[in-house]
Amino acid sequence: MNDQSNKSSSPMFSDSLMSADDALEFLINSALVSEHTEAMSLDDSVGRILSKDIHSKINVPGFDNSAMDGYTIALSDKNVEETNQIFKVVDRIAAGSIGEELKEGNAARIFTGAPIPKGGNTVVMQEECQASKDGSEITIKRSINLNENIRLTGNDIVKNDVILKTGKKIEPEDISLAASVGIGELEVFKRLKIGVFFTGDELVEPGNSLKAGKIYNSNRYALVALLKNAGCEVVNLGNIKDNFNSTCDALEKLSKACDLIMTTGGVSVGEEDHVKPAVEKLGSINLWKIKMKPGKPLAYGQVRNIPFIGLPGNPVSSFVTYCIFALPFIKKMQGNNDFKNEPIKVKTNFDCKRAKPRREYARVQVDYSYEIPVASLYPKQGSDVMSSVVWADGIIEIPENTTFDSGTILDYYPLSELTR
User: Fold this and answer.
1) Which CATH number characterizes residue 42's domain?
2) How many CB atoms lie within 10 A of CB 340?
3) Domain that holds residue 392
4) CA torsion angle 51 57 59 65 (round to 10)
5) For residue range 96-118, what is the model confidence (pLDDT) as tens digits?
6) Which of 158, 209, 275, 355 has the fewest beta carbons under 10 Å from its own?
7) Residue 325 carries which DSSP code?
8) Are 43 and 172 in the same domain?
9) Angle of helix 244-255 relative to helix 275-282, nearest 10 degrees?
10) What is the DSSP letter of 132?
11) pLDDT digits (tens, 9 = 90+) for 291-323
12) Is 225 contained in some domain?
């Protein structure tokens, strides 16, 4: 990659625009973790965020037990590593039952998970034991060592260990782990309540016919779906009248009921863009110009001390800025420790001959059949081309003010990680 200095002289891309890195850092530093928690049953906890560490009150396993079906033996130290030994079978121990104490030289039939009886000090798998016809004796031809196939007390978890940490998104395996130590419910952060509304007199709801100059409101459905995918509760005011007073009323209503307010469109500098001045009247706008493509007009502020994020109006711009900026902000508010987007390295099979003044988040497909995955660029990268997002499996980050040849290594973010 060539580090060129041919920056644009256009005032539109002047240094007054905030870099994408600075904007993200600003947003993350501004996000406050929710203080609202609740107890949830294990069945209802998956996908939620833990609000406190989980300690085990027991050892797992709580007793020495057999790792397989076979025979547990009271093996004498002097018989270790001897071959062709014969043992008298004196007991049968199933999982959930307690066997009698074994005397030296005796054995007990034992099953996976059953407690090792007092005196038992090794387990030999049943395939290696030759039982007599009446089952009263077994012969083991190979040499035997002590403590074979025994799961020791606390082998998995030691009492008082932290088994799940605050800020973890609960996965099915976490549910299993909690259940294994007897925990029936988990303390989690309450779902964030996010209020949304949409502006634009040109917008028409899907299912209705279009008149001249009108467009279907795809942003409404995209944003609500993204928020629900992130585990949020959505308060949706739908389309509101595209004027200053209606915008103020919507912001006021949501500020009384929600943890975060989000909109799409209306944050640019046009005379019909009412969101920015409405937020300024009820609170403040802290940043709203980002040196990125797509999505330059991204707004962040406060409405009656409730955080506000205003996404751009073009569908791809709205989608990308949500993924890059809004979702990490939301995850941090949720108490999720894993809130940063983590890129993977991919190789481009396209070049960039003209340096661009804004960082670009381009839609690509990645071929993983190569040692280093190879990214292919969608031919139409306009902020109105939503089909590029559907076609893509991720977004590649093209640094500002650089050129590069095909084969250059860049950062790539899978959509599967950027949308949940």
Assistant:
1) 3.90.105.10
2) 11
3) 344-418
4) -110
5) 999 999 999 999 999 999 999 99
6) 209
7) I
8) yes
9) 50
10) -
11) 999 988 889 999 999 999 999 889 999 999 999
12) yes
